[in-house]
Amino acid sequence: MIHARRTGVAAVVVLAALAGAPGSAQAQPSSVTAASATASDGGLPPGWRVTGEGAERELVWRSERTVPMGDARVEFHAGDRLLGVPRAAADGRTFRLALDQDTPLEDLRVLAAGRRLDVNAGGSGDDGGSGGTGDGGGSGGGGSAAPEEGRLPAQPPANAVDPGKAGPYGTVSGEYDLPPVKLPGFAAPVEMQAVVVAPKGATGKRPLALFLHGRHGTCYKPGGDDVTGDWPCAAGHKAIPSYKGYLRDQKLLASQGYMTVSISANGINGQDGEVEDGGAQARSSLVRQHLAKWADWTAHRGDAPAVVRDAPETDLSRVLLVGHSRGGEGVNRAAMDSLYPAPAAQDGYRGPVSWKIRGTVLIGPTIFGHNPVADVPSVTILPGCDGDVADLQGQVYVDGTRGVSKGGALHSAVYVVGANHNFFNSEWTPGQAEAPADDDFWEDPDSHSRDKVCSTRSRTRLTAGQQQKAGATYTAAAARLFVAGDDRVRPLLDGSNRRAPSADPARVLTHAVGARRTGGFLPDNGVKVTGGRLCAAVDPSATRACLSRKVKGASPHFAWWQSAKEAGRGAVALKWSAAGRATKVTPAKPVSLSGATHLALRVIVPPNTSGTKLDVSVTDSAGHRAKLGRVKVDGLPGTARTASYWAREIRVPLTAAGRGGFDLKHVKSLTLTPRSRSGQAWMMDAWGWAPGTSVVTAAALPRVDIGRLRVKEGDSGTRTYRVPVTVSGHGSGKVRFSVLDQDTGRTVDRTVTVRPGVSPIDVPVVVKGDTRFGDEERHSLLAKAVRGAVVGSYAGGVTVEDDDPAPVMKLKPVAGRVTEGKKLTWRVTFSAPAEVDVRQEVRVLPVTEGVELSTKDVDPRWLENFGERPNPERPLSEAGVWLTFDVRAGRTSADLTVPTVKDRVTEPAESLRLALTDWDGEPLPGLESTGTVVDAS
């Protein structure tokens, strides 16, 4: 079976002249880009191999244990470079990635949301680390002499209103199961199944809360532990009822007068493994298919299922969407698509929008596209012990909205100390679930060590019941604020340091952007920093990155996206060894804090530290300086396996700035002066703050979507194709495009003004046809909104399929009978040369007659290349030996040798039987050969 590596490029990507100011980034390709093997990759780490033929040539990694089906994407990396997103096999242990590009496979890693999968996760989690290479190498953060892992934050004061208390209504529940729907890109139809919980006895029209679960196993076999990701389920298996996992949340909301529905998405989970956006558009389509049904039932109640028909009428002008994990990204996209329609070819719902999304709740969400909807309020729940989406990338739903649109929508991050990913869904919780379930924060059961924050034996870890109670309470808080408009619950969500007693004993911390925040000291390209530095969230440079790779743990604010270097994300980094070293932040233009009562800052300090003290002062354009006050910041509990470098919101009153002629309308700079002996901190931003929320209206914005073309290489001639980019909607805005230069392996970034009906970027792909066997090529483009725009399909490009047949192979011995101490030699020949380097794996088979060559009959140094040793002596077919032929591009043959050793033992002739293999490692018929070694005497 042939495995190929490209040495030349058959298609050339040219970046045409773009509008807007140029800015380049030496970054790497997106997750839609495939990997490659070099001729020297025979020394791959244990568990890795190269296999496949033609379009199926692949890099394969096999885990020592089953990798549970989850929401985070499994990714192959070589150092800081993303190689691609592999395809999972049915066994849950084998992952395959198509090969492309001439990239050495060095420092191979398997990551899922920043978490290493190819190393053992012990109790202490010392294998963790952030993706950056800058500051943050130590643990000092302020006043505490010795950081203490597992120290719980103090409980905030109780809020005046507790949304976790049950309301006045009883509840009634039921289900509906409608005909399935076809969605673009999915072969099998997707179910239209849901559970409804309604208030009993409520009058008038009631708001609707819709829940969407995340990516989990789809099917199980009753009575056993067999869980699959198949769809539809095989005979003897039942569908896992993930949609029933939020009944606690539904009953709480229904008791408070909400209609609630939780929908099933197993049909998407079972088919989204190779979808470019991870299934976000499909989930959005499914959500809107259900909302359309509810709109029909509102107009024609006689057609509704019994549980809907017998419940109060639904008010679809007041809808809350709740999504868990990939379901979070799905409801975010549904909110986007409801305001800014997706291209018809991509969308699975094309009807009218008869509803209004008032807000979203995103629980441990993914955000592969980094494309939050700025004008729809949101609450993002970040589980401190998330073992699935471990980098807590959902923080981007907050940080990624800054400056994109009007800024009036509240975007809240709710950090729940000790919560894992799965237990927010009772059907993913051991002891509660119908199907097999587990704790996603995995620990080695044979290890005596434990994670001091997230182990089930740690005092910071929540039980399943405690976690579910907290999740339901803060979901209800979002409903009460966004849908009911009750500002009394806002302090629970906006960083005001209040708690809902119903969520006790959980420690819940919040910060936010938007609402009535004004001005803004942001770490963007126009800001000037003295006494500190402007650091980058993702950058391989030690002088530019915010966090060091040596750091134990990670930051949700600096979660890795698609490349080793990313523009537009960062923070202001402070580091000091003595009190008094001030850091001044000067934006490109003075900001206005007029109308604000406080200055609200989001500041990160290292986990497990306490007592970092900072004096905060501001200076106006006339040079007047006002010292606003001193703040104290404590770190979160964290370990090497947690993303605990998370910003705390701190506020200082602007009272001092209101005296002495200080001009709050023209604030020129912000100064932070450490008063602790030593430490470090990162300021994410600072805003003028006032209580309350704004009336939110969505801006009319342009929407950008990137498509992907699949084209044939052809046998001759040259053809030019272009990456499909569409702009719809209204108005104009700024979008950053990142295009991969196929010749250099780098990306070039351009910030471009986009307008509907005008192509914002021209990326031609020139394809040269030939008749030689080669690789499939993928040329990729990414997009991210900068200002005044939204991005739907954020990744796409052109895929060039090689349409030439693989050459016919033959295997024959060159030195097939040798004396001890000589080399057995075989030659593989091709019927025609290929345009790529070709690798063919060879398997050692047991001999059919006579004595087999053993591990003591070959050169021990040769054997060590495969991680094997001579002792104990065993037949070579029982050792972990995988041989390879490497045929260079343009050639038609290659030799393989096996060095033998001379001994003093009189032996009969010994044999070695080889076979070329297919992509599963099975021998190919008629492609076997046996060599023989005889005594030298």
Provide the fold topology.
Layout: E1 2-6, E2 11-13, E3 25-27, E4 48-51, E5 58-62, E6 74-78, E7 81-84, E8 87-88, E9 94-98, E10 108-112, E11 115-116, E12 170-181, E13 190-200, E14 206-212, E15 219-220, E16 227-228, E17 238-239, H1 247-255, E18 259-263, H2 266-269, H3 280-299, H4 306-309, E19 314-324, H5 326-339, E20 357-363, E21 378-383, H6 396-399, E22 411-416, H7 464-483, E23 508-513, E24 518-521, E25 528-530, E26 533-536, E27 570-576, E28 583-586, E29 598-604, E30 612-620, E31 625-633, E32 648-653, E33 667-674, E34 679-689, E35 702-706, E36 708-712, E37 718-722, E38 725-729, E39 733-741, E40 746-754, E41 764-768, E42 777-787, E43 790-791, E44 795-801, E45 809-815, E46 817-819, E47 823-830, E48 836-845, E49 851-852, H8 860-864, E50 882-887, E51 893-899, E52 910-917, E53 923-934
Parallel strand pairs: 14-18, 14-19, 19-20, 20-21, 21-22, 35-43, 36-44, 46-53, 49-52
Antiparallel strand pairs: 1-48, 2-41, 3-40, 4-5, 5-9, 6-7, 6-10, 8-9, 10-11, 12-13, 13-18, 15-16, 15-17, 22-23, 24-34, 25-28, 26-27, 27-34, 28-33, 29-32, 29-34, 30-31, 30-33, 35-38, 37-41, 39-40, 39-42, 42-44, 45-47, 47-51, 48-50, 48-52, 52-53
Helix pairs in contact: 1-7, 3-5
